[in-house]
Structures are given as C-alpha cells and as structure tokens.
UniProtKB/TrEMBL annotation, chains A, B, C, D:
The gene is iolG. Gene3D superfamilies: Dihydrodipicolinate Reductase, domain 2, NAD(P)-binding Rossmann-like Domain. Residues 131-251 form the GFO/IDH/MocA-like oxidoreductase domain. Pfam families: GFO_IDH_MocA, GFO_IDH_MocA_C3. It comes from Ectobacillus funiculus. The keyword Transmembrane does not apply. This is Inositol 2-dehydrogenase. Belongs to the Gfo/Idh/MocA family. It is an enzyme of class 1 (oxidoreductase).
Amino acid sequence: MNTVTLGIIGAGRIGRLHVDNLLSVPQVKIKAVSDVVVDHLQEWAASKGISVLTTNYQDLLADPEIDAVFICSPTSTHAQIIQEAARAKKHIFCEKPVSFSAEQTIEALRVVEEEGVQLQVGFNRRFDPNFKKVRDLVQQGEVGQPHILKITSRDPQPPSVDYILTSGGLFMDMMIHDFDMARYVMNSEVVEVSAQGAVLVDPAIGEAGDIDTAIVTLKFANGAIGVIDNSRQAVYGYDQRVEVFGAKGAATADNCRPTTVEVSTVEGVVKDKPLYFFLERYTQAYIEEVTQFAKTILAGEKALCTGNDGLQAERIAKAAKESFLAGCPVKIEHETVTAQ
Amino acid sequence: MNTVTLGIIGAGRIGRLHVDNLLSVPQVKIKAVSDVVVDHLQEWAASKGISVLTTNYQDLLADPEIDAVFICSPTSTHAQIIQEAARAKKHIFCEKPVSFSAEQTIEALRVVEEEGVQLQVGFNRRFDPNFKKVRDLVQQGEVGQPHILKITSRDPQPPSVDYILTSGGLFMDMMIHDFDMARYVMNSEVVEVSAQGAVLVDPAIGEAGDIDTAIVTLKFANGAIGVIDNSRQAVYGYDQRVEVFGAKGAATADNCRPTTVEVSTVEGVVKDKPLYFFLERYTQAYIEEVTQFAKTILAGEKALCTGNDGLQAERIAKAAKESFLAGCPVKIEHETVTAQ
Amino acid sequence: MNTVTLGIIGAGRIGRLHVDNLLSVPQVKIKAVSDVVVDHLQEWAASKGISVLTTNYQDLLADPEIDAVFICSPTSTHAQIIQEAARAKKHIFCEKPVSFSAEQTIEALRVVEEEGVQLQVGFNRRFDPNFKKVRDLVQQGEVGQPHILKITSRDPQPPSVDYILTSGGLFMDMMIHDFDMARYVMNSEVVEVSAQGAVLVDPAIGEAGDIDTAIVTLKFANGAIGVIDNSRQAVYGYDQRVEVFGAKGAATADNCRPTTVEVSTVEGVVKDKPLYFFLERYTQAYIEEVTQFAKTILAGEKALCTGNDGLQAERIAKAAKESFLAGCPVKIEHETVTAQ
Amino acid sequence: MNTVTLGIIGAGRIGRLHVDNLLSVPQVKIKAVSDVVVDHLQEWAASKGISVLTTNYQDLLADPEIDAVFICSPTSTHAQIIQEAARAKKHIFCEKPVSFSAEQTIEALRVVEEEGVQLQVGFNRRFDPNFKKVRDLVQQGEVGQPHILKITSRDPQPPSVDYILTSGGLFMDMMIHDFDMARYVMNSEVVEVSAQGAVLVDPAIGEAGDIDTAIVTLKFANGAIGVIDNSRQAVYGYDQRVEVFGAKGAATADNCRPTTVEVSTVEGVVKDKPLYFFLERYTQAYIEEVTQFAKTILAGEKALCTGNDGLQAERIAKAAKESFLAGCPVKIEHETVTAQ
C-alpha cells in the first residue's frame, strides 16, 4: 500500500479542517464523505476532488477501496461507529472524546482490538512542535526526574450555552486535552485528581450546569504532582502553556504569537497577543496529526495517540468532575485495555 | 520625631541584613543590639556605629531612647518579646512567622492593640517592585475581576535537615510567604485550601517528617481560585513568579536575572539563570521594607504589613498542613484581630 | 479569468519551491515547466500534475493558454526572457535580481511597460508577516517620522566559492534583499550609501574577489538614516532582524524560532536558535508572495513588488559596491521607470 | 593605607552623585568639597559628614590628608586641574571627557605619567554588569574572533540648547561613551570612522550647530567592523544595547527595565519601558566605578579606565566629527601615551 484511501464521516468544522489538511498529505487519497445532510456540501466536495458524497456512513464502511475512516461526527455516535468501522476492517481516526462513558469507550476499544485495526484519537496538541519538544526533553532526561507539571489552558472566548449543554462539561470537553497532555509529557499515569471550579466568566454557564474556570491538581504514578488551570475566556487570546519541572531543571513551552514584532512608545513596549484560537495555534499540529496517522497506517505501526490514550483522558476527566462535585480528591484506577 | 531610634533583637543572618539596610535609611538610628551571645559581635557592632551591645533584650525595652525594636530572634521567642515590647511602648518589626500557634499570635496581637503600638511583620516580598506592580495593577482594575492566581516559588537548594526539624515544615516556613503574597496581590482572604505534597528532592527531608515539593490550591472570599507550587530545590536558581488572571486580562511577574545578556552559539541561545536566592532577589525589597517601617512609624501611620497579615498567613499555613495530612480540602475562618 | 495558468522557466531549487507553493494556491494552474535539461524532471513533473515539460522556454511563451510565467533561470538570462515574455503578453514573476546591469534592467522594464503586462520581482521578504507588520506600523505613523533604520541579515553559512564567483558579489547577491527591505519599510528612496566590508569568515571568499562581512549606511530621501549589517556566516542560524526608530517610538522584528521552549538548568536558560535558513524562515513569505502574484494578476492590479523595486535595489547594490571599492560614500539618482 | 581620603572638586549633579555613592564605599572617607559657589551646599555637606567646604579647589590639593580628588568641574577646567592635582601627588578620578583637545589631554596625561599618580576617567558604562559580561564573554573567546560590533545608544530626551552649545557636540558629548564602549568590549583600537548625521529631533539643535541623530561605522585594528547609532530622543526611554558578533556566535546586552511585569489584555501584551535615563540605568555602574577607583588606589594598581582610554575616545570623537563634516571616512592614529 502506497496510499491510504480515506472516508470522512462528518463534515462539520473539524471534518472539513481535516479534509483540507489531508489534501496536502501525499500519502493520502480522500474518496468519500458522509454527513447527515449533504446537499450544501456538493460544491465543496467537488472542489476537493472527493467523488462520493453520502448521507449514510455505512456506505463508506462497505466500500472495499476505503482503508480508513475519520470519525468527525458528534461524540454520542463515536463508540458505535468505531465498532462498525473496526468490524469492517477499517483503520480509524476518531475525534476526542471517544465517548462520554468509560464503559462505551472500553467496549469500542475491545472491538478495535479484536479486529486488529489501528485507532488514533484526535488529541491534536500532542503534535504541536512546542509540546512535543517538552515531552522529548523530559524523555531524554534533560530535566531529570519530573517533580511538578504545570499546564495553563485558556480559551479566548466561551462557546455558546447550547454547545455547553451537550459538551459533557468543562472537564470532559476542554480540560480533557490537558489531561492527555499531562500523560503525554510526563509519560506517567494520573492516579489522583482534586478539582476546584467556579463560574466567573458568565453566569449563564453556571445556569447551564457547568463551570467556566477550574484548577485541578494531579498525582502521577511516578510520584510527581501537577496542576492544570482552565478558563473559558482569556480576553488576550488562546493561552496554552506547559511546564515540566524536575530534579535537573525545567522545560517550558510558552504561547505562540503571529509575529515577533515589538513596538516601543511612550506608552510601553507592546508585543503580539497569543495566536487567537485552536485553528491558528494548532495549524501545524493538525497537519502533523493526520500526516502521522497516514504514515503509521502505511507502515503498519501503532498509532501515536491510541484508544487507550483516549480512555485514560476520559477517566481523568470523569474523576475530576466527581472530585469537583464531592469537594475532595478522587483516585483513578488505570488498568489499560491491552491491545491499545 | 525626625528619626526612629532602633534596637535590634537577634543578630543572626537576618538581623545583620536588616542592620546593613537600615544604615542606608536616613530616618533611622540604630542604638543597640542584643543577642544570646555577643562576644563575636563587638567589632561588627563598632563598625556599624552601634553603641550598645547586650545579651539581654530587655535592656533595649527599658531604654527610653529606643522607639522601636526589630525582633529577629528565633520564632519560638517572637510572641513573648512582642508582648514585652508592646508593654514597653516600643513599635515593633517582627520577622515572620509571628509564632507557630494561632493562639500565641492572637494573644500577642491583642497586647499590641491594647498598647497602641505599630507592628510590622517581615513579609519582605510585598516590597518587591515586581510583585507590588502586579498588586497595583490588580487594585487598579487593569486585569478586571480576578479569576485565577498562580504563584511559583522554588528555592535553589534545600536547607539543612537540622533547620527543617525546627522550621515548622514547608507550609509554615516556606509557603507562608506565598500565602501572604496571595492575600496581598488578590486583596481577598483565603477561605479554603487543598494541599498536595511529596518528598522528591531528598529522602532525608521526608525522614525528618517534612515534604519538599507541594502544590496548594486556594479559594478566595471574592470567588477567585488560585494555586501555589513550591519546591525546595530548583537547580537553576530561585524561581519566583506571580500571575493574576482576570476578566480583563493577566498580569505576570517573571524572574529577575543578573544581566540581560544573551549568548547565541551553535549550541543555542542562552540567557542568565534567575538571581540565586533571596538575598540577591529581594535586595531592594529588604531595603524598601525597613524604609517603609521607619516612614510609617514617623508618620504615625499603620504598618504596610500588619500583625493581622501575619496571623492570616499562619492560619492558611496551618490549614494547608491539615489538608495535606487529611487528604482533603480545609476551610479557613478569617475573623481578623481588630486593631491590626 | 478565474484561474491563472502558469509556465515555470527554470526548475532549480527556487523554481521547484515555487511549484510546491503554487500547488496550494487555488487561483493557479501550472501547465508547463522548462529547463535546459529535463530528463531528470519527468517523474517530479508528473507527480505535480504538470503536463508540459520542455527544454525550450519559448514553447511556454508561444502557448496561448499560459497567462503568466515564472522566471527562475540564472540571473544572466532574466532580462532577455522578461522582454520575450512581455512581447508574448505574458505576465511575469521574475526572481531577483532582474539583472546585474542597470541598463539591461531598464531596457527590460521598458518593454514590460510598453506591453502593459505585470512584472513582480521576487523579493520574498516583503511578504514575511513580521516585516510586513513593521512596514504597516511605519505607514500608519505608529513610530512617527522615521529617523533610523537598522537591518541585520546574516546567513547561517556561506555558499560555495563557485557560487560566489557568479553571484555578483555580497552587495548584489545578499544585501540586495536588505536594500529592498530598506525601501519597503521606510517607504522612501535611498539617496546615498557608504559601505564597509571585510573578509572575516573565509579567506577563500576574499580570494574569489568578494567580501563576507559588511556594514552599509544609508541616507533616505525623507531625511532618515539607516544601517545594514551582513555576514555570510552566523553559526547560530539565519539572523534576520529589522528595526525602525522614529519620533514616536520604535518597531522591531526579531528572529523566528522553531519553538517557544526554554530549558532552565544549572548551566543557564536556553531557547531555540533562529530558524535555520531562508527555506525555514520564509516558508510563509514564499507562499504569500506567489499567492499575491496570482491575486493581483486576476484582479488586474499592479504587482506588490514591481520591476522598479527590482531596479532601485540593484542601483543601491551597485552604489554600495562602488562605495566599498572607492572608500567613500556614493550618491544615488533615483529616477523611476514610469509604468513600474 | 586602609582608607582613601578624598576631595571632590565640583559639586554639581555628577559631583553630588559620586558623593552619595562614595558614602556606601567602606574604603573611602570624603573630607572636602570645593565649588565656585558653596553657600547653598552647607547643609548638604554637613548631612554627608563632609568637614571642609571651600571655593578654592587648590585648598584640597594643598591638604596633605587628601589622597585623591574627583574632578567633576566643567570640562574646560579638567586638563588644568589634572596637572595641578598630579603635581600635588594626588590620585585622580576625572569625569569624561578629559578635554576637548587632544593636545591638552596629552599634556595632562604627560604630567600624570611624570608624577606617577593614578588617573581614572569616568566612563561609567564600563562598570555596568551587562556590558561587562559582554566584554568578558568576548575576552574569553565565547563568540570567537569578533566580526561585527553594534551599539545602540539613545537618550530619552535632548538636553537644553544651552547645554548643547557648550557640550562639544553629539560626537564628543554623547557618542564618546559609545566610542569607549567599542574599545572596551572589542579590546581593539578603532582605526577608521565614517559618520552620518542628521537633525531630526529638534531644528533648534541644528540651529545651535549640532546634530541629534547619527550613525557611525568603525574599523578596528583587529579587522572587525562596527556601527554605533545615537539619537537625542527615544520617547520610550534610555535605549542602551550592545552586540558583538563573531566567528563562534553573538553576545547581546539588552535594555534594563524597572520590573519584569507583563500585562496581557485585549489591546496586546505590554512590558515596561527601559529604565528612564542614566541615573536609573547606571545606578550600579556608578557605584562600582567609584568602588573600583578606591580599590585600585589602595592596592597600588592601575586604574580600570585610564587616561589613555579617555584620550583614545576623544580622538575617535574628533575623527567622527571630521568625517561628518567632510562626508568621507577618516583614519585614526592610535599611538598611546605610555604610562597610561
């Protein structure tokens, strides 16, 4: 196999983003796209050279030319489609989270394992060159044994309340990225979480049953401790920082900015705000993510962000929510699903 | 009164540091120094123009020329000496902490209140221009309503185990500075703490019954949340950073470095490590601290860091230790001692 | 016209780079490529969807479907091909410099003017977002009337002596980019130059009759003064900085780095070196450059970097060389060629 | 000799600054101050513990207790007083420049040499820890053989036109510091200068016969080249930067700022402007300068910034002015006055 032929399930914002990025990956051919409504997508699909457009994702699973599918449909459909795709012997790229329920996720991963297909979960930040460098430095021992992890992750503006109502809540929808980042850079499982949360950005978020500001402390299996802070609204832009502190030093990844320009006037010295949001900040990460998916499929290798990675992040998110509600720390069992 | 005549009780490292700084304060005259042993101090005292050297601090309290005393003796003696000094109508500068016991501290503050003298507690970091600017920006509303506070505070190397044994432990000895900083920059009381701690730097610290690495989350009366991380050993130097994030933005104070020099070679681009430790980092803060003490005494004004500030920081430290031992959050009552 | 159909003349490193970038520009179709030898290019052209491959660039000029050509052949051929392409009514993108002789360049621009086609010269750095922002700030008056311009431009390693022998020398080959940048950010003509040069990197460069290190001061028509420094070898990477200082402040564009990661250890605090060389540093600028070419052609607008811009930069480079050889400042007439 | 007893000649701004700094130097005693008018200085001198106040500086030279004098009187008097002080066997600290005439300076240095006293010239910036580190790095070979020197030196606001009329002009009054810095960090003599100048800040400066903006290129005896830019008005504060680029890398000293605080809002990310002017920027350098003077006198060692250093900087300044007026480069003979 020289090329991976793909089907895309779900052509919303993230689905179309993946399509655009996949067009620049030489190892890939996009054959088909499915969505619940496709009429408005005809021109778009044609301009991308996509020959099949269907409302039934099972058409993609039934197509023997298709090697792998991207699951970009709503979270509630992920677990079911993963199982069907695996049974159809398709490799799978699935957006995060795999599901809102550990049981569903585990069941889906079992089928993936049984069928021997690859599953990559869409934690795009792992492919950001800044965070990847922090991880590499930690792995190479440059900071010594890790002692403290710090992650700051703040969105530039909150999503709509409608979105929040079906999002699974801040821990499952937003901080789940940071839980995965924590496991990724520390290369160790999270064994306990303790969550603080508040509604400080918008009371409507509180009325919707969610929080908009949170600090979660973590204990890792390797003995280290860590902390993540989240806000739904940093007015100065997307604030995405990671720091690992250890016995031999510290590695920090700071925000990325559109330019390096500084302006000095009588008012002060001003530099650019961070890149606005995930589309700007993680442009390169999104491209790298799908490129690596294609490469590992072609090479017959294991995905760089597996179903188990998805499961563990969900478990931490669920434990964080429990901790927040209970007002005390919650321990996490971290048994893994074998094959993934 | 144009000049404050001072007596210094305790001529250890911090006492002698204050003497050196006070010599550059024009509003001050140092008349006397007491310590448990003084023979080795004769030449030093003479070179500083100090005329009285005694082993009995009560000689200083009995001297009608002395307006104020600096209490730089061991913590265990603070509460007692504060009371005696207040009864003798001396204004008081006392090193932190006031005591290891809220009851003792409260009793001492009651006497201070009754006698109507001023008491300034030695939280030197309040006088650092970086942190003061963060506080001022917050007070002026530049970051809007505060949502998240982050303090990083890491020493370059751990103290001796002997020191640790009598230190009161990491929360009372080290993080107490950060608890005070939290109250100072947020201008709000801490109402709940949740502590994580570990022994990662040196097992001997654990054997001495203490920890060397900690993360503590805070809830403030104003609704904000915060987090402090401490380590007894940052091999790259004294890591002292503060960040306040709010509705309108964020203010961050970064580390100070000896020079601005950057060296670019084939190996990378290297800048200076942070200033090594508190003597280097807080040089200016220590001078400003004693200058402000003298100025407020002369002006008959309230101290800029009061006995109540000392008490509240101690309460938070105590609660943090309880939280660490209990493995769950601890709430803090924050009644204040009136006059202070 | 919805799409610009292109022919590429010259498929060396820069020609192939433009092809790759043009493939991501939706307004563009690449029909044909010519080079003096094409056998080794068959597979490459096929993979890019290029249908015509020829050793005769005049085939491209004779093709009525081709709207515009990219001239990426050796500098010595530029002026001649520009004229032929203009006579054939093709719009033109030409790599810098247009020629090594003002007379040849002027003659080429005259034909371009007569035929009414567009000519864009390949000063890619104008399309770098950092430098563009500096220019925009200057244009918007953010730094007030410009007083001082400073440009630092240092390559990571010198080219081969073979290259240097036919390069036209440091001023025409390397600093010409900075002369164009000077005119671009200052929006004013250079009226006098004074050059200092030295052979400090490699004696072989001196033996080839060139220099490898230079500082050139500039006087602008608007009264401002400026300075450019060049080195053929900055061992820490491609050093590309611009600063405009004026009555109301300064705007500076610093180097770009692969990541924002800083590593703090006992040795110091290390950040990334600048991006290695022009392919890494100006990735975005190269894409933007050809995108803007396509857009201005489609819109019937004037190129953003015209033949006159090419001519003026060449004149400054020539004057700088004269100044270096004569050891004194040289004035520059800046009559423009009208249509461009 | 354990202590250097000093007389201060001239109690203007810089004289009084030195007095304040000298009071913190334990190796020093200030006995006497002279100025042309002293009535207004009585209280000031008393507060500083200075016992002798006179209108006749020769009283200081005649006082056998005085070991050394600080010459802080107007430049026009320096050369004469140096000679008288040397004849009186006093060591000398003299503010820069030694004189406006090479002949006068050489004559003064000859007497200093004959009498065997030490003369330190007041180039305070040599004692700035940032620039000293750059020099040390260059000396230690960290950047390899130096190729390019860059100095930026811009004042926050121009002096009065009255001051400018007697200042000796921008090259002698302001850029002379940078000429000394150039020799200091490069450890090599300047053999040629080429000056560009303009009146861009204030036409009144031009009417006074001076310029307010300048760029001067330098050739060094070691083959390196360099450039200095000056402006009399950087509205954002005192801009003081040095960069040495060489075969193995570059060392840069950036501006110093009051705090490390950054404020991120919807408007941008703002940090402090540079420290306002020389009193703020060079506080530490001024103290170190006089401390080192006292130490070298006590140790019988050569001054760290000698009369010859003063002479060479003056020669470069004079050559720069000639170059500016003539519009072409000017070579500099750099014979040294032996003993200094």
